[in-house]
Amino acid sequence: MNRKIIPVSHAQLTSLDLEAFVRQADALNQRNRERFTSPFPKCPSRWISHYQFEPRLITFTDQGAVEGGLSWLVGTTLDFSFARDLCADAYGTRGGTCYDPASLLFLEVAAKVDGYPDYARFCRDLEQAEKGRCYRDLAGLDEAIPGQDSFSNFRKRVGHSVVDQTMDIMVQLFIDFGLIKGEVVSTDGQLDPTHSRFKGCAYACEGCKAIPIDEAQRHDLAQQLQSGSLRLEIICPLPEVVDKVREATAKKGAPKDPKVVLLEVEPLPPEQLSSKLHHKLAERLGVPQDQLPPVRLKWSHLSLGPSGELQARCPKVPSDLEAGVGYHVDNQNPGQKERVFGYLHLKTTDLHPDFALELPLGNSTYAAGTDEGTEFIGHRSALAMPVLPGQIQLADAANDQIDNYHWVHEHGGIAVFDYNPRNEHLDVTSLLNRGYDPNGTPYAPCGRLCHSNGYDYQADSRQYVCGLQCPPEEQQRCPHRHGVLGYCHRMTFHDHPRLIGPIQRGSQQWQQIYAMRSASERTNSYDQEVIAKGSAVKMRGLAAFSFAGAIRTLGQLLRRTCNFVLDATYTLGRLHPLRT
């Protein structure tokens, strides 16, 4: 790739070039060596690989790229030995040999930094003599080279928490370096589909795999068949699911009970009947074979347990029970919502206005049906970048909840969330009756809209005045005409936390600041188009998606920061070989 000129003064970039980054990384490495001192359970003689950080030469191509790729820059400046401490609890003194966790964590990071969309391609290149040489050298691989199974075992063993802790270390590095300021941050969600088909029930659970069928239900199934039904069903045995479905269907008309179809038959002439299959059906339903109509069993979700008890499996149970159903705007048809069966990634992005730099701060993963607003506080609390005094926190209407406003306010931040009108009546008459417009600006007694007269930080309130907008003849009749600014009204954050704040909702300043929230959408797009190369990852389960979301976010942070450092060095004209 060709390097670009950063359009800021050289004085601003002097402390952000490659040499400055190497010095900052050296200081971080030293702190990590002093901080992470827990011994790894297995002795080094039982490691298949031996990661060792050592000084190496950084050289550049004619286009300004690092020889060996961005992963070479990461591997030659950042020491991943701390991974042994982070992963120590996941390993034991017993068992066979294992790869050095520092080797595998570095390779996980390298794969995302260099933009590999899947492990198959990365493992192929890792085994290549030339393509994989840099990776093997930096990771300390000897003769054994990890394959997809080794990476899969590592991900399951250590989980996403190791990547989250590594992310916190890197975020602190770039806070100290000056690329993360924390003045404006933005939080947004992104849906990721699971490699599993949604079968129509959002309430499926483990219990749906083995539903006990009592004699009354068995008799009812036999009655359905004898009365001519071809699809035999029972009412869902989970009372809480029945209540939810009945409540949802009641809004559309008459309430309905959710049904579980357990088997299907088709009529056949008597001469074509299979006595074996007919006997199987009679056994399942507990009736004599001669009492069954001439039908053939097409499919069944009924089975006999070890003791002869009848049990069923709901056909609507997906292969991924941890996934949920969420909706987002359909890219092909922006006017429609697209259903996504999978997981929700919540990401927070830091915006550096001086350099137009947008860096992810962390990721949290939940089932797709999760309410973003209820998880906002937990997600933000887990990040290395806290809510700072005066920090502007951006988020969309999904986070427009009172608890979130209070939490940000208590930590000294300023919440700029899009307003969610919910079921509020926003017609002119309703707004006049309640006394203020959708942005929280009150109406004067004459019906005219007031305007802000400043925010009181001590009282956490905003003063509104009418400003005597009415004509002179009307002012003569106004009871507030003697005031310098006419009618005055104060609205407090305590009474209206969703509407009142230091930045007036709906003002030009508010609109300009909220427009910066598009940085979160670019972070999500970068995650999909650059890190994942636009290809859906074929995996299932919350643990797998949590690790994938965390490692992709870490890869994006390192990619963007390394590219910025290289661009700053190129802008200053200092691209020359450097020994770290």
Task: Give a description of the structure.
This protein has helices at residues 10-13, 18-35, 70-77, 83-87, 101-113, 119-127, 133-139, 148-158, 160-177, 215-226, 239-250, 275-285, 372-381, 402-410, 428-434, 472-475, 508-514, 518-531, 542-571, and strands spanning 57-58, 184-193, 211-212, 231-235, 259-267, 295-300, 302-304, 310-312, 324-329, 337-352, 357-367, 392-395, 414-417, 451-456, 461-465, 488-492, 578-579. Helix 14 (402-410) links the parallel strand 12 and strand 13. The chain has 580 residues and is of the alpha+beta class. Among the domains are: 10-180 and 557-579, no CATH class; 206-312, no CATH class; 427-502, no CATH class. The chain is flat, with a radius of gyration of 31 Å. Strands 2, 9, 10, 11, 12 and 13 form a six-stranded mixed sheet that branches. A three-stranded antiparallel sheet has the order 3-8-7, with no helix packed on it. It contains 19 helices and 17 strands. Helices cover 36% and strands 17% of the residues.
Question: Total number of β-strand segments?
Answer: 17
The proportion of strand residues reads: 15-25%
Q: Quick one: biggest sheet?
A: 6 strands, mixed
Q: How large, in whole angstroms, is the Cα Rg?
A: 31 Å
Unreliable segments of 5+ consecutive residues: none
The rough form would be described as flat
SS content category:
alpha+beta
First and last CA, distance: 23 Å
Overall mean pLDDT score? 92
Please bin the fraction of helical residues. Answer: 25-40%
